[in-house]
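note to self: dont lose this again. the chain is below, predicted strucutre after it. 388 aa total, dont forget to put it in the shared folder this time
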Amino acid sequence: MDPESARTRLALERLAGRSLTALPVAASLLWLGGTFHRTYGPTHYFLNYQHGFLKRALLGELLLPLHFISLRAVLAIELAIFAAVVGVTYIVFRRTLFGTLEERALAAFLLAAPAFLPHFAYLSGDLDSVLYVCAVLAVGAFLTMPAMVAVACAIALSIAALLIHEAFALLFYPVLLAIMIDVWRRHRLRIGVVVAQLALIGIIFLAILHFGKWSVLHPEYLAAAQQRTDMPLEGTVFLVLSNTLQQQLRFVAVLYTKQLIAGVLLSCLVSLPYFGILLWLMQSALAVRGYAKKTRWRLLLLLCAPLLLLPLGHDAMRWVSAICVNLSLFLLYLYSTAPEPAERRALTAWTATPLYPAMLGYTLALGAYGIASTRLITNLGNLLSGHP
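---
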């Protein structure tokens, strides 16, 4: 190859690499604020500990010094949370995002997918984004710190996340547990430490559920909270917090309408190739790392724990998204800790094949996962029904 052609090729590779690094953010900005009109998530900003301990109130307690939070301030908080999502993601996985062309391609596919950054951008007001930040910071601890220090950081961040929303125990804690299992398997952590921290997290989770109940009538709490904002607060948030388990199960069962179920099933159907790639990458990476087949499937079941939230909340695609995020985070962790080139090639070799651009274009076309469907399904449904 002559020098001029070599320079041209190098310039094109640099341009491609930079484009892949920027792609997750660019794809997310297309969907940013898709639910700015939805007040369910931001209503949690007005829960606090002024009348005693209450589950899901930590974030609101931190925002309590803001005596009045206008709608504009709420939008600013949502944008700040999404900026934190992007910031911690790019910092923790910077070596992959700014690495070789193959590494950037892998990171771009995982992070720009419907369930990842576009999903967090679309649902920027929901607490899932804050829970994700806690989870990624914990993953970063395992990538940069000694095992015991990382476990301590993961415990602290998990407790904070549980106080923000107890669903963290099923949403993103499973990926931290999977990472600890891998660290133990590589003889860098004792199994007793893994079991002890799991027991601690379980006890704290149950304590939050038991003690985090209303000390005043929730209609009074709602009326007082409404005085602190010009944004209409979502009364359902206060109702859900006052529900018993049986009441919540009955409440959610009514919300599973035929239309919602159809949207979820169609979204999962059109997402099967995306799910298949994540499954294939995980099985390949774990096989190269030496995991037995049964253990690989057990880890997969662990990372699918968000499905247990289906009876407790009708936001089905949020739970599906959490599974995909767990798988993607675990894949990025596996790549970042791979001691042998063969392990890294198991995750990056496919990015040099024709399959990669096809899959990347397909996932970008799906659009962000919303509450009960992908944006592609939602837009097609609106088109067929005549709604804008």
